[in-house]
Fold each of these.
Amino acid sequence: MAELYRLLLVEDNPGDAELARDWIAGILDMKIDVENVVTLRNAITALSDGAFDGIILDLNLPDSTGAATLDNLVPACPNTPIVIFAGSNTALDLTALNHGAGVLEIVAKDDNPDVLLTQSVRSMLKHASAERHHDQFRSLVTVMPDAVVVTNRAGVVQFLNPAAKSLLGKSEDDFLGEIINFAVASDRPSDLDILRTGGRRSVELRVAECTWDYRPALLATMRDVTEERQLSERLRQTQKMEALGLLAGGVAHDINNLLLVVMLYADMIRSAEAPALFANEAGEIVDAVERAQALTRQLLTFSRRQPIERKVISIADIVVGIHSMLRRLMPVEIEITSLIDDDVWSTIGDTNQIEQVLMNLAVNARDAMPDGGRFTIGLENRTLAETTDGASPGDYLCLTVTDEGSGIADADRERIFEPFFTTKPRGQGTGLGLATSYAIVAQMGGHILLDTTVGAGTTFTILLPRAEKATGAETDTAMPANRLGGHETVLVVDDDQAVARAARHILEVNGYAVHAAANGAEAQNLLDKGELSVDLVLSDVVMPLVGGPELGRYVIERFPDLPVVFMTGYSDHPITRQDGESTIEGCPVLLKPFRPQALLSLVRSVLDDRGAQGRA
């Protein structure tokens, strides 16, 4: 659609006004609306009522003549171009009018006025169109969310929009007239870091040539991508941690199976009627295995495959209760301070794991302050109105752990939560403390943030979701040792033959008859033949061909009176519930690694329940 232009024709001669209208109407490529007034007073009124793109002015009017007409009109339209339509009795020089910025042309009425007037009007409206587009462009740039800086070709700053002032942290007066050398880049943006009060901001910079105030210029747009880069980095870190978690969990599971075999046999030797020397050595084996299992538990926690007891817990009580343990951990040169707000909220999690997080952070703080300092644990309620550092809006319990130590170097910050990464000398750290803490907090639905300055100290901020309601917890009742044995027949199903042999040996030593199968398919085949009289199926969960869940459903359907017990090292497997049962009703889960008494107690309990149901 063609632009509509408005012209104000100030002409008191009806004939001249009609001719001017006709000539302007002949400009066919422009849509022009002409309003005619006959006095200076009417012209000023018309200008106050609406905007015009140009003025055609006769200086000799009923209420004003000559240069005085122009002098009185210009204040009412300081930025509107004017073409003077002068009669033969008006002798004027454009430069003598002293209004060169507003007056574009003087057209004499007796010197080819049709051609000259149409040329002048066309030129005037092109000027008006450029001015209009410039104003629109300036308005658009002003409201853009991206920062915009305009310089002339020499790099002198001509304009900053509000977003640029906010991004750069300075006013327009601080920059106008300053020189900034922007290079005209290709279609791809350039990366730029801006240092300002409040920290570093990352921006994408694009520079293009433009016209500003009718002169060649450079327009630089800067998009603040700080949060976007941080989110991208968090996503990259999360994906890396998940990949490492899968690796760590798989390795820990395989090691746990090996440790389980060693543990089971060592326990049997220690409990058997063996020489004291053997019993003592078996005890040493058990202690070593338990230390190794502590490491695998950390790996499983990092990979979120370690079972946790989910219940409403008071972090405030945990912080108070752990104080004496921290005092024994820290040298006397380190002052321990707790800052706990009144009426802090509770959260849902595992008390032991929260204690583990605090101890891990305390060990790091101790090692960072070899000459002493202050170690502070803070606890307060915090409500987030918007997403902050990856944490969604909502109520959180905010736990902070601060030291005055050496801080963490920038090169190490990105890797600080990776498993096996440590800045400590060889032999002085496993590299699992912070990785485990990260995993525990994530498993609770929380977030752990790092703020550190080299030479000034480190603060870990942990945001844990506020607990909505209490959850119950199951308690185990130990079975007397003299009731752990039996005479029933158990089918042990596990693809790890060492685990199967160890479990079989424990059961047989305690009076059970045992058969074994290497996977679910082999177990199904043995049961279908009907040659075995089986009282209980003890099955691993993850196996080739036919896994434990599929075997369990098969047994329930074909042999409804035959109980099934699962054993697994994966607490996050879909079949495993937090209460120690499986998602297959009536089939409990025994989590690896387990002690012989735990295996015997569960088997005996399930068989006794089956017998009670049969008698009922």
Amino acid sequence: MAYADDAVRAKLSALNETQDSIVSVAQWIIFHRRHADRTAELWLERLKDSNPPKKLNLIYLANEVVQQSKARKKDDFLVAFSPIIAEATSLAYKSGTQDTGGKIKRVVEVWRQRNIFDLAIQDATEKRIHEVDKSRTARSGGARLGGSLLGGSILSGSSSSAVPPELQPLAQPQANLSRSESAAQPLIKTANTEYAKLTDPNTPVPSPPVHAARLSSLLKNLASAEGAVNDSLKARSELIAGLEKLLESNRGKLDEEQKTHSELSSRRATIEAKKKDVEDGIMRGLSADASSAVASANSLPASGDHGSPEVESFTPPPPDVE
């Protein structure tokens, strides 16, 4: 069968879980390795549109293709799959059951053991799987805590009711930025590494065909890294715009609150002064009443001024002298 997009799609649609099917389709794909980039694009397209069991079969197919390519020292498919394998593996892992997830993890472990992909690509793939696991843990925790902020995450969106309404518009831009950064870092590292190798003056120049192939591969890596960084730039700009909008809104509210605070402080000081005046007046009134009472008491006659009755003397009068 000649190579064409429809032919690739037909092969991918006919793929099943048997070893014979996976090996047969992989051999056909490898035979048309000149179209590795396009095949990888169609493979990712098919994976995104497939159900979980089919996604697992497509991961098995990619595994067969890249391992056979590695064994034959043909890096066409390794170069083609490197920019997309982390995303694809994450999609398959996220949508699958615990059983299919375990199988996908095993495939990723084999890639590390056999050094199938560059270390940066391998690390990025494992990181994406770890993020899925962490997101699942956060969601289950949020359910146990009734959707509280402790169990949810502003990024995962698993507990949007726990996120303040003012912050909800920032959740998706932040999640987009995190995904963009995660996807860009391994691509940047790969592009920089390959660029350093190819431009090193101490590295012997290979034959023209090999040199041309390596330059072509480097161009693809640079383009992939550039595109990933561009996506990250867009995501960060979107997040910054949202943050600036939130900041501007809070600055306006801050001005209003400062004005209100000044008014309330002034009113409180005025009322305190008025209260003090009233209390002082009360105290002055009490003092005047007390002074009047004392003056009235001093103006009354003493009890001895009315005269005391005569008291008969107990001493008898002296006897008359005879």
